[in-house]
Design brief:
Layout: H1 2-29, E1 34-38, E2 40-41, E3 52-53, H2 55-67, E4 71-72, H3 75-83, E5 92-99, H4 103-115, E6 119-123, H5 136-144, E7 148-152, H6 166-184, E8 190-192, H7 200-208, E9 213-215, E10 234-235, H8 243-251, H9 253-261
Parallel strand pairs: 1-5, 1-10, 2-3, 4-5, 5-6, 6-7, 8-9
Helix pairs in contact: 2-4, 2-8
Length: 263
């Protein structure tokens, strides 16, 4: 009786170990580095907000990335690695912001600089200089720091699939790119879809406008992990402010599970 129990326990342990090994192998083979998507970093951020985190939460998250061995690289470097088929280390992360809120300069930028972490801001160029948005002087200062680069988020944050006119669509894409290149004095290669909405027509228009990489937001849109015109991102907000929730999203394991849940 004892021997049968012992054999059953050993068999169960082997099965569990094999299952764990298979899971780890699957995670590694299907690993998708996390591209984190922020919007506003504002004091008093509502815990239910999907568009804001508090400076304290953001500081805690950046400190975790810095001290827990995450490989934080610029979004363009991550995208180029995907393009060239380079395998990236586990826990590779890129940090992005959408819209160009003023608090990206007043709150997020000093924290990123403290920890030496790079990030990309996707700017709505038609709103630059607005009271609650980045000014061109602030944009240049952030760029000149060596920690922050910029991509386009259109001129007006229009929902691109709803833009029927090819001329209007081209204007939103090319105009925002031209404005950034004029004020920053260099090429702009990255784009992020407003609200994550796109289709094949929009992807082709973005490509024709001269962008090399585009970033999406919506996990329900089925695209390949190496689609350079629809690179996937993970929304970070005050709602995901707990240390474990943030670690899980940044780890790459979240991507693996999320993809299978939406199949």
């Amino acid at each position: 009786m004892y021997k049968r129990i012992k054999r059953a326990a050993i068999t169960a342990a082997v099965v569990i170990l094999l299952a764990l090994f298979s899971l780890v192998l699957a995670l590694r083979l299907n690993y998708v580095p996390a591209v984190l998507m922020y919007h506003s970093v504002a004091p008093g951020a509502d815990p239910s907000s999907r568009l804001a985190v508090s400076p304290a939460t953001f500081d805690r998250q950046m400190r975790m990335l810095k001290t827990r061995g995450f490989n934080v690289i610029p979004a363009e470097e991550l995208a180029r690695n995907v393009k060239e088929g380079k395998r990236m280390p586990l826990h590779t992360v890129a940090i992005t912001f959408d819209d160009g809120y003023k608090d990206n300069y007043t709150h997020a930028f000093p924290i990123l600089r403290t920890y030496g972490l790079p990030a990309t801001v996707f700017m709505i160029t038609g709103e630059a200089g607005r009271q609650d948005r980045l000014s061109w002087d602030e944009i240049r200062e952030m760029r000149d720091s060596g920690f922050i680069d910029f991509g386009s988020h259109t001129i007006s944050h229009c929902i691109l699939p709803e833009v029927a006119s090819s001329e209007e669509l081209a204007g939103e894409l090319s105009g925002s790119k031209a404005a950034l290149e004029k004020h920053l004095g260099g090429p702009v290669k990255m784009f992020a879809y407003p609200c994550g909405f796109f289709d094949e027509r929009i992807k082709e228009a973005v490509r024709k406008a001269g962008y090399e990489f585009s970033f999406a937001t919506n996990p329900r849109i089925k695209t390949a992990d190496d689609d350079l015109m629809a690179l996937k991102r993970i929304r970070i907000s005050q709602h995901s402010g707990s240390s474990f929730a943030f670690w899980f999203r940044a780890s790459g394991y979240y991507n693996f599970i999320r993809e299978r849940r939406h199949r």
